[in-house]
């Protein structure tokens, strides 16, 4: 749609201006923008893990994130303490890396930036200026790795901070009985 195309171009320009980079070539890849629709996060009848399986999550955020039930439980826990933006950002980055079309990628990159990265974003994640700057530079020409640095930072933060709190919570204690 013309509107989406215009907002993508505005976004690319805005980021280029912020970085002091002049437009060197016209953006023609943005002709086919199809808005990306979020799928609701309901795990498809996720299998409740065995206590042994759940116990492994204490030492491995990755094992937790790879398990649909664990992910849903972790998300509920974070929602209960109003800190789900880090996990939502991580999930958005995972989805982003599955996009094949450059136009859809540009659209999704803009959406992630506006929702999680930009200052005062509705779900602004806690990343340092250095990471924010790298991410913005990467968004001038969105690629599958545009958010990698920020995603790694947030992953480390969840591992250090959210995971230990989750492991002490009722949400988790229920799973290891």
From TrEMBL:
Secretion signal span: none
GO cellular component: cytoplasm; membrane
Localisation: Cytoplasm; Membrane
One GO term of the biological process aspect: negative regulation of signal transduction
Domain RGS: 60-176
Keyword Cell membrane: no
Coiled-coil spans in chain: none
Main location: cytoplasm
Alphabetized InterPro entries for the sequence: RGS (IPR016137), RGS_RGS5 (IPR034956), RGS_sf (IPR036305), RGS_subdom1/3 (IPR024066), RGS_subdomain_2 (IPR044926)
Molecular-function GO terms, alphabetical: GTPase activity
Pfam families for the chain: RGS
Keywords linked to the UniProt accession: Cytoplasm, Membrane, Signal transduction inhibitor
Function as written in the Swiss-Prot or TrEMBL entry: Inhibits signal transduction by increasing the GTPase activity of G protein alpha subunits thereby driving them into their inactive GDP-bound form. Binds to G(i)-alpha and G(o)-alpha, but not to G(s)-alpha.
Protein name: Regulator of G-protein signaling 5
Source species: Microcebus murinus
Gene name per UniProt: RGS5
